[in-house]
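Input chain follows. Return structure tokens only.
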Amino acid sequence: MDIKGLKDIDPGKSMFELIKTLYPICRSITGDGNRMTLNMIKDIIPIEIKEVPSGTKVFDWTVPKEWNIKDAYIKDSKGEKIVDFRDSNLHVLNYSMPVQKKLSLKELKEHLFTLPEYPDWVPYRTSYYEENWGFCISYNKLAELQDGEYEVFIDSTLKDGSLTYGEFLIKGKIQDEILISCHICHPSLCNDNLSGIALVTHLAAYLSSMPLRYSYRFLFIPGTIGSITWLALNESRVSLIKHGLVIALVGDSGHVTYKKSRIGNAEIDRAASHVLRSSGDEYEIIDFIPYGYDERQFCSPGFNLPVGCFMRTPYGRYPQYHTSADNLDFIKPEFLMDSFRKIFKILNIIDNNRTYINKNQKCEPQLGRRGLYSSIGGGQDKRIRELAMLWVLNLSDGKHSLLDIAEISAIDFDLIREMAEILQRHELLGDIGC
């Protein structure tokens, strides 16, 4: 895995185009919308699409009935549609049971969801595990409704089927794995989490063309029930996962936020911290809490996997979250690309972190007679490159990894790695592995 080629690519626009393509699809924790989404991803990377039957016991949970929807609307007393699922799939309470009836405005209001604080926006609401029905509308639309009779119609099915998810494994030199996960259950919400789907898809495509030390497993799963299901079905092989990232909310203009794993100082946590500190950009690192995305399942006590969460503005911290305002105008290709680059740099550290032993431990080796000063180069960066080389020589005692050296020296990992490679070519370092 090599960071050098990263500067020559810019998949920001391609990620944005994929988001545009996926945006109209009504997704949920089950259903045909997820299958359609995964099949579009399969056109880019060869994911394996898997089906887990409804009723399957997965730890303390059960795979639910499958939900699909064809149409929904509210008509006023004149027979005119005032709310239409075909205008926005957010208009229907996700997982609504089928209904067709006439009722008064008072009765209808018991099934309407609005955002009074943002009167033009439509909220996103769900009822996954409790049978219910409803519509999500703008507060301004609610204010327009007059007393009278209304017809509600939701053409949906809720019956035994399956939970659908996608999985893609890139085999590296070793069997140990890096897990990359994103959730696919949200409908027309661009940042949460079409941005994650698009980034993970393009990241997998990019890594597929590279020589890798670790194997990389990519999961495209519905939130919560998807990770629980995957863990239940793969419990015997979870020990192969040595590092991991849950990726969500990566297309907005906010600075990057990294949520640590439950372990707190896992190598993935340290690599993320190093990349963000070295970036020169504003960032935030937060401790693990058992609330959020699927990292809370991967980090549950029975697994305690080293899986962090990479986001920009975290869930609930921006008003557009879970509303119709999380649309194509809210995300930008340049922010998707910035997230992509930083995530790649984190993985680059993990994949290239090594521990070396200095073969010349009694005092410094004579660098000049080996031509190492010419390898360091000249110009303004000569001093920092020389210092990086000296740090690598000094701390390569078989106990400190390259990431350790980068953290102690406060020098960028890529420069530390470059100096280690130069020293190894001159037979001053021996590689003892991770």
